[in-house]
Input
Amino acid sequence: MKAMSLKRVFDITVASAVLLGLSPLMLLLAVSVRLESPGGALFRQTRVGRARRDFTIYKFRTMTVMERGGPSHFDCGDQRRVTALGAWLRRLKLDELPQFINVLKGDMSLVGPRPEVRPWVEVYPERWAKVLSVRPGLTDEASIEFKDEEKLLALASDPERLYRETILPRKLKHGEAYAARNNFLGDLSILVRTLQAIISGRKVYSAMEHGDSQKLIAAAYKRRVDERADRLYDCFQAGALYISQAQERSWLWLLGRIGFSGGRLREKKIYEVGCGAGGMLARLLLWGAAPENLSGCDLLPERTAEAVRRLPAAVTIKTGDAAASEAEAGVYDLVFQSTYFSSVISPDHRRAVAREMWRLASPGGWVVSYDMRYFNPANRDVHPTLPAELAEYFPEAAESFSRSVLLVPPLARRLARAGFWLCDFLGFFPFLRGHLIAAFRKA
Output
């Protein structure tokens, strides 16, 4: 009872402070919403609260007003009615600010299971009975996991089915766990992690269907080519040249560390996951690898077509899903990926690709990951892969090691013009290194 009383006092204190402190911003947003499209500034909807009692939830309106008598089907994945301002509000979660009014009124808490409309409550009534024993909240574990839920649904082939059969059950699992433990310190942890998720911009799509994950990978690479390639990867620019040379040094160190130097590279069979246009395979050829021993796959046909054009005919290039390749199992001395994992949004998809990489590696062979360590606010398509995650992907490794490398690219691009020595000097500090190279040996 004391914990619940403390929780309510905390709710009232924080909600009052937010509403007072951010009232000028909320007024500006309300006026902006009204000016952008016809309709009120607030979106109101009936949700089911504690003890299954209905209440009205408030948000800033982010969509155009639907005409009376318009469709009432499930449209969470429909982005066509989202306004330009609405998309921005959703991305920063500012559309949720009016819900502090719900917190102040006692309809909601700062932390608790997110409230739903009654039709979805009736889908799993017994499970909702447990969840609705506590006040619904502005955020919870499910809010962190499904921070960009509307984008996930927009990409799904059947968004209603995905929500009903995958997302909602996972939300209910989080809600049941919260109702069972419900403690104040746990609430503080959730609030901190919610802020971290919003600030970092990381997208977590653990419930994404495999095909939908591939759609996002393709879209991310298209944006990278359309918007960034000329500016970021042109080696006539000092920053791009420094990064390219630093990457080469990292890979040559790795190849030496696993015993592939001194002419031995020519004997090794090598497979690249996410080979793109063949840039890394071309480097391996330059370092002494035999064309007939090199293979690669990529999801995008235009990229594999470019790889086929630029590489010798003896190199094997395939188009398809890296998680289900047609390559022969257990024959490759080195299976590697270079910044592929960081482009894969779904953790389940990353695990599937890792399993496929392990399948392809020969006994005594190596699986290597070269990828990003940090979130990049300027590139929301990046999802860094950390050492603990990689260790989880390859638990059967007989030997493993990792090393942070390469000065964080945004800094390197700016400082390289002043001198490569400056980038090398700063690269001595581990916390300024933006990539991780990790190797796992198969028994």
In short: The two ends are 55 Å apart (CA to CA). The chain has 18 helices and eleven strands. The domain at 212-441 is CATH 3.40.50.150 (Rossmann fold).
